[in-house]
Amino acid sequence: MRRRRGPAVVARVSILVLAVACSGGRTAAAPAAPTTATPDTQAPQAGSGYGPPTLLGRIDDPAIDESSGLVASRRNPGRLWTHNDSGDDPVVYCLDGQARTCGVWKVTGADAFDWEDIAAGPGPTPGEPYLYVGDIGDNIDQRSQIVVYRIPEPTVGGGGAVGTKAAPTPTATAEALRLRYPDGARNAEALLVHPVTGDIYVMSKEAQGAGVYRATAPVDPKSVTTLAKVATLQLGAAEVVTGGDISPDGRRVALCTYSRGYELQVPAGAGSFDAVWSQPPAPVDLGFRLQGEGIAYRLDGRALLTTSEIYPSPLQQVERR
Question: 90-101: per-residue pLDDT in tens?
Answer without folding.
Answer: 999 999 999 999
